[in-house]
Sequence to fold (84 residues):
Amino acid sequence: MPSFLVETYTPGPGRTALPGLAARAEEAANVASIAGIDIQHVRSFLAPDDEVCFHLFEAASADAVVRMSELTQFDHERVTEVIE
Fold:
């Protein structure tokens, strides 16, 4: 399944916010999966100095990631296909 990097703006959360941000991404993917969207959260990375969090998802398409974001109100700035 293809991989997608989701970029989210995270103003001021600090270095300790990653577990909560990752849990939110995992929850969003689980809710979307139950709703029939083929998606799985893989991992999250935080760049605290840039106030950006990156979430890696496996999904059928970029559209599936966007649908997950809309369904779960998971904010995203950009969705980009990546190759590992």
About this structure: The domain at 3-82 is CATH 3.30.70.3090 (Alpha-Beta Plaits). The CA atoms of residues 12 and 51 lie 6 Å apart.
